[in-house]
């Protein structure tokens, strides 16, 4: 794995700059006092490099000695003070990288030309890195502050352990709160999204305080609605928080605004409910201290006409008036808002503040709930998927973070399936794991009963809140359905839900419709089909944990089954023509020892199939020459006979009801051997492939199985390690507790293998080899020769030059099936 680039002349961060003559320390090195010798009696490499820069008239150097340093932090912030009309335009965000040479730590600026190393999670915390070229930038807004700029690096392997005891060479780098090295913004952002509060500017210390109401004039919301346009001064509001939205970050390079955040609170008194908007620096001060149910006294606020296109959440009490003509604005200034949290013990009945009313539903009720219904759920987590990301808009640098989870509540053999987006609660989102009691509010029902398989799941909304600990004392604990769930849990000490819990891996959801026409109408993209010649670019454009679904058309020419015992082996070598490419996410970011590491990975025992846990039904096929059955694993397990094919050429086919269907080669071989019959072949190859495979321009291989692709059986005692493996990469290094286990040591949730499918482009010049999960590709084997198909691919960047491509479903465009 390498982030090695050629020697740039002058990167966009320092091209054409005339450096001033800054104030320097006595040693002549910018950025504060240099200590000559480290605690261990050896000189600091960082110190020596800075001294080289000081003596260089070019303000950049290739270090005379390149030694490995450890990466302790990778932190993101909005790039400012750069000309936005230049070509090429600078990126929206930039990164500070904290390194340690074993003697000192140093916070460095990463040249924007190397941002792609962060996008792909190649440059990350915990790795060893060699810096091949550095320059020095001077921050003219800070006296005597020189910034070490990383211009060229080689990213190495993950280190077993890194000491955090080494001091910062520059004392300014350890100041609290942390500040970015460049730009006018005063804070860092979360590394992978903009919704999560990150860093030490986010306070949590606001506490309720008793208030003397004798001299406080209070106005009701309904009265304020009628009179606000004619008022200059507004009396205080006494309200209860009914809903709290996730954060919205609206920072832009050309707007000189400190902490550009916004959040909505839906508050109510006895006369109505209204939206309150908290702006800018008030968000870091108050956001994490405010929670649903608190009573607030608001003073010195402003009122404006409401934004016409915003949909307010449903009121908790249908009898309370929904005020949509005005909004309450809370600012740090203009005027400076005064917020007081009133203790619940001081709340008087005569105030008639509304109580929280929840909308809990059970899993047994979900089947009859209409689409877009807003509800709350409680249950125990039985599956927690890995964190994934999706772009908010094409050609932008902003992403949503989300993961799929399964929740059991004891009322049905099926779980809730939930698409859990980040709710600005990273302390929860990054710490959920199976066997946890889970509450999520304000979920929206997504369903399509006309699709096969039927679509039914829940997704979070802007006002969703998640609870995993501290349930005692929460307002929802008095709800009848919550009490019923608690009673069920107490009587199920050794339940199947707990035994069969699963974490991580590739999760094929939502399902693809049964016809291409329905698929076409369900997606919103500029171009419905992607040419196989463009697949490489689609994949190389993916950023870390970004998952995307694309459609390709071509001709299936080779199908090969890979049993679980050799799932990680490069099993399609025999199909690979000489000179075929093994594409990575970035050709400029290859590891020098990549081939050696892959050889080592190939020797590990891995299997790669989606999990089958209580309430998650997965079908697979057992085949032998005389008898075939489809076995459905799940609470309603039945054996369904499948019609016997007429010819031996069709023995690989059956008609599936679900897209995630597997061929169990081991069972087939054992059954056939037991009856003295010949096992089924592991491979099918068309005549067209034999004719075309040596004349290809490009042959793309994406069939490698990585440990992160495999759903694992959850072990509670190893919850910390497993949770970390399937979370996003942290922005700061976290030392491991003892010697961590290997992810390959954890059992797969399934024991089946997978297929490798070679798809030849219609122009006959390109081919692609994804992994396949569905046996409908086997169904087509008898009529594959020169037959055109449309394949639906799930593509994902796992980071560190690892790409995952799954053939999710195939369609026959001729008969729309």
UniProtKB/TrEMBL annotation:
GO terms under cellular component: nuclear speck; replication fork
Membrane-spanning intervals of the chain: none
Protein name as annotated: RPA1 related single stranded DNA binding protein, X-linked
Residue spans of biased composition, Basic and acidic residues class: 589-608
One BP term from GO: negative regulation of double-strand break repair via homologous recombination
GO molecular function: single-stranded DNA binding
Gene3D superfamilies with a match to the protein in the record: Nucleic acid-binding proteins
Region Disordered, residue ranges: 1-33, 569-614, 631-656
Compositionally biased spans, kind Polar residues: 579-588
